[in-house]
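Narrative of accomplishments. A recurring question from our advisory board has been how the design workflow behaves on a single, concrete structure rather than in aggregate. To address it, we present the structure tokens for one chain from the evaluation set, followed by the sequence designed for it. No filtering or post-editing was applied between the two.
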């Protein structure tokens, strides 16, 4: 067994390591995450235990924010640690406790504990003047602590990762509202998985160690089902295993450990231009799927150049492997076995997959892999014969014929170029032999032979492979014919000369071949260096780019120079208010070619399917350019098209192009996020100004309105004060004055309603609407709404039908009452006097488990075109025929949906007892903000 050589670092890995080092230097503090599958597994408990261990080591530990959820054993661990007082915020009359970031930064502890990384920080202030927090999310607080050089311990559940949110929703049916970017997880210096079995967690839930007894049973029925927990556990384990595997590979590369460690299953399949490689790729994919392991497809680039046919087949095989989920890698080595084993050690491969040769004699590669692979398992797979292919029809060759064929095809570069190399080799051999012929008068033929041999060695710098073999043979024959006695014959007289001739031939061929190999390795090193330099320059320039135009220009410049090609980059644009919905009509102005209609169709396909297509692929190969998606986790932000000036495209450079496209996409996303961040800051300032302005308006308007309203009431008689909407006249005022006072009073009420609607819409749009839920009687709420609108509905016939006098609902009674008032005012404003307004309330006993409130009028209804827009902001169904701002119904929709309910509007048919009109139907859940099951689940998603 041969000794394994140290791993030669991969340039891409070196570049990634440099980036990680720079990242660590920028973030001085270390982050340790206690990671788990769900609440209740013991993350906070383990974090506190670790904190006590660090405290015993003399580290200054501070508890910044720890949520014990009333668990006695967790609260016991908090004792003995310094606890940072929580910041108390007043929000709409309620007191909220949050993590005090400024106090933590001022104390400068060595280690701080900040629980619940995905938590959303609360705002402060009154509903008229809301002050947003400095950071919206707690993980942003943690990053600021790390930048300040403070070590942080925190906790995180797998469902709160941004990339796992959609998966969790598909498994559990729950929408995750609090998420943490995956970059924060990658930023963590250490992750400790806190894992218990689903059965043990359910037992803890049953014992009341996760939630109080009144919530445990509901949690078990909803989120804490065994299937949900098992799926979340698998996600947490896989994510942690992937991170550990990456750390292991980094360690082996950093310490130049050559031997593979079988810490996990990882397959490698050797892919070449052979038509049989396609079957090997599919077999390896099935094997990897069965073993639940990762796999890579490796192409070893040897000295032998490929024909266009073989190059196309190799690209097709690698494309298939990439499509089936393999990681594609290319290694340059003149020895296939040595290249495979180098990749095995570099990527910590546990099993190698190779094809079984068609002939028993062609087992040299497999024999060497068996003898030199050490502890690595080897799968020799029999592939189905391809009788139509020329390889399947080839006759059995002798060893000598195989060697001759290898030498003949060693430098296959096309018939024309090969013939030119042969003629060049022949010419150099003749010129060299004839050139030294005059030296025979002063030198021996042995010395002249050394001169010719030296010339052959130098010629290997220009020629390679079979050309060098031809030159070596010709120079040996010419040396024999022109210089070795007897001259001008091919007969060699003495044994010494025969031996000298044989050694000359062997040395000439060996020198030529070795020199060619050195040249090949030089080209491989130069190619690798070129790739590394290109990636480094690209990364540096992309990091310096400050606009999208600079990013695109940088990408076009580097791709064009590196691949000797024209480049087009097509970005995306919004459609129907959604970003990245379609490609722009034309390529970016920095592009060096503009795709025509046909090429744009290929680009559209790439954008929709997020897969490469076009030239050098099996999808739309007739295209003149090769197209790749600029994909990031959030979306596809564009498409890049590359139109090479040559007809070939090396397979290893395709991987490089994908790497570059990924960097460009990440830079474009970065600029987009920067722009969004700027817009968010501008929006935050605008909202702050907006809130301040509305606060001023509300105070400036409310006070005069209250004075006007009170004065109008004071001008009316006692009868009007008791019933201001009656038609009786004041004894102290004339009829005209009484009418003026009544109109002043009603106008002030309308204006006060307008101010209230503006404030309510502000709360809805800024997300600062907070529900103050309590058990209330919906029947009384509906009756109160009717009483508040009695003046406006005086000219209408109001009917109220309720199934019961007591219908209890857990909701914000004030918001529901305001919603009903807005609907009733809408009916009073848009329907003629004398028509009916019918209100109904009944309980729903199906799976929804809530209440149905209906309010119908006897007006003309609305048109079919206007009906879908009734709840839009500032929409008025009949234009300027009636007053109002068009905010009332949109506020109703916001209030109802904040409770998890729905509201719909429909025209009633004329044959109904009210002769048509518009009917609003509100479905309101009985128990919480959202339908019962969903609310329960969402409450269980965070600790």
């Amino acid at each position: 067994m041969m000794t394994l050589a140290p791993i030669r670092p991969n340039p891409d890995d070196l570049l990634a390591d440099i980036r990680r080092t720079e990242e660590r230097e920028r973030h001085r503090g270390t982050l340790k995450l206690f990671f788990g599958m769900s609440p209740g597994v013991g993350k906070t408990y383990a974090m506190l235990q670790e904190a006590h261990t660090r405290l015993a080591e003399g580290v200054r530990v501070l508890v910044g924010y720890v949520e014990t959820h009333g668990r006695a054993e967790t609260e016991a661990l908090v004792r003995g640690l310094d606890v940072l007082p929580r910041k108390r915020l007043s929000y709409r009359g309620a007191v909220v406790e949050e993590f005090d970031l400024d106090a933590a930064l001022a104390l400068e502890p060595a280690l701080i504990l900040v629980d619940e990384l995905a938590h959303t920080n609360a705002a402060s202030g009154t509903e008229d003047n809301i002050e947003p927090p400095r950071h919206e999310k707690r993980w942003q607080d943690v990053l600021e602590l790390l930048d300040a050089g403070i070590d942080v311990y925190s906790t995180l559940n797998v469902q709160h990762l941004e990339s796992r949110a959609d998966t969790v929703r598909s498994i559990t049916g729950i929408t995750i509202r609090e998420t943490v970017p995956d970059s924060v997880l990658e930023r963590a210096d250490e992750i400790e998985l806190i894992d218990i079995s689903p059965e043990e967690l359910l037992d803890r839930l049953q014992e009341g160690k996760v939630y109080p007894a009144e919530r445990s049973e509901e949690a078990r029925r909803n989120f804490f089902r065994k299937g949900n927990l098992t799926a979340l556990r698998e996600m947490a384990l896989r994510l942690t295993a992937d991170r550990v595997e990456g750390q292991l590979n980094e360690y082996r590369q950093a310490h130049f450990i050559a031997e593979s460690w079988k810490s996990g299953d990882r397959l490698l399949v050797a892919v070449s231009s052979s038509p049989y490689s396609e079957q090997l790729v599919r077999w390896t994919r099935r094997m990897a799927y069965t073993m639940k392991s990762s796999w890579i497809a490796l192409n070893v680039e040897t000295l032998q150049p490929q024909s266009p046919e073989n190059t196309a087949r190799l690209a097709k095989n690698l494309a298939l492997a990439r499509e089936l989920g393999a990681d594609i890698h290319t290694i340059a080595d003149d020895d296939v076995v040595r290249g495979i084993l180098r990749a095995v050690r570099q990527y910590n491969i546990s099993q190698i997959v190779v094809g079984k040769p068609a002939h028993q004699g062609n087992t040299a590669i497999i024999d060497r892999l068996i003898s030199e692979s050490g502890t690595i398992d080897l799968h020799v797979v029999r592939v189905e014969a391809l009788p139509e292919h020329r390889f399947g029809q080839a006759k059995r060759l002798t060893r000598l014929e195989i060697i001759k064929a290898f030498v003949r095809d060693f430098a296959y570069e096309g018939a024309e170029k090969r013939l030119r190399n042969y003629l060049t080799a022949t010419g150099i051999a003749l010129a060299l032999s004839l050139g030294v012929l005059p030296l025979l008068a002063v030198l021996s033929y042995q010395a002249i032979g050394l001169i010719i041999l030296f010339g052959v060695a130098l010629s290997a710098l220009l020629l390679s492979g079979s050309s060098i073999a031809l030159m070596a043979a010709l120079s040996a024959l010419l040396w024999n014919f022109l210089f070795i006695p007897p001259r001008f014959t091919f007969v060699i007289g003495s044994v010494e000369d025969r031996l000298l001739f044989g050694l000359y031939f062997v040395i000439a061929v060996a020198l030529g071949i070795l020199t060619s190999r050195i040249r090949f390795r030089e080209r491989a090193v130069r190619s690798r260096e070129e790739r590394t330099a290109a990636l480094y320059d690209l990364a540096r320039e992309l990091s310096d780019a400050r606009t999208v135009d600079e990013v695109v220009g940088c990408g076009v410049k580097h791709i064009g120079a590196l691949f000797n090609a024209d480049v087009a980059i097509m970005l995306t644009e919004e459609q129907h208010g959604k970003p990245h919905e379609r490609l722009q009509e034309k390529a970016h102005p920095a592009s060096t070619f503009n795709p025509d209609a046909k090429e744009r169709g290929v680009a559209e396909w790439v954008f929709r399917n997020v897969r490469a297509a076009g030239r050098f692929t099996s999808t739309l190969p007739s295209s003149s350019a090769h197209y790749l998606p600029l994909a990031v986790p959030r979306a596809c932000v564009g498409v890049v098209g590359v139109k090479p000036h040559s007809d070939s495209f090396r397979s290893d450079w395709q991987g490089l192009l994908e790497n570059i496209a990924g960097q460009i996409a990440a830079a474009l996303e970065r600029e987009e996020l920067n722009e969004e961040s700027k817009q968010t800051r501008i929006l935050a300032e605008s909202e702050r100004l907006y809130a301040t302005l509305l606060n001023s308006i509300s105070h400036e308007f409310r006070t005069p309105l209250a004075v006007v309203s009170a004065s109008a009431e004071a001008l009316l008689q006692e009868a009007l004060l008791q019933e201001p909407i009656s038609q009786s006249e004041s004894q102290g005022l004339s009829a005209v004055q009484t009418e003026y006072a009544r109109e002043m009073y009603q106008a002030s009420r309308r204006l006060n309603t307008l101010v209230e609607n503006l404030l309510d819409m502000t709360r809805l749009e800024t997300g600062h609407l907070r529900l103050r839920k309590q058990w209330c009687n919906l029947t009384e709420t509906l009756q109160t709404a009717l009483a508040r609108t009695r003046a406006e509905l005086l000219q209408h016939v109001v009917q109220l039908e309720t199934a019961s006098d007591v219908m209890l609902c857990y909701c914000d009674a004030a918001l529901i009452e305001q919603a009903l008032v807005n609907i009733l005012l809408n009916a009073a404003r848009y329907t003629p006097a004398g028509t009916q307004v019918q209100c109904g309330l009944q309980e729903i006993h199906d799976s929804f488990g809530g209440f149905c409130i209906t309010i119908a009028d006897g007006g003309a209804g609305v048109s079919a075109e206007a009906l879908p827009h009734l709840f839009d902001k500032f929409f008025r169904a009949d234009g300027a025929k009636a007053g109002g701002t068009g905010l009332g119904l949109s506020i109703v929709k916001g209030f109802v949906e904040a409770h998890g309910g729905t509201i719909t509007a429909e025209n009633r048919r004329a044959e109904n007892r009210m002769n048509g009109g518009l009917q609003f139907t509100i479905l309101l859940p009985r128990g919480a903000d959202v339908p019962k099951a969903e609310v329960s689940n969402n409450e269980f998603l965070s600790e």
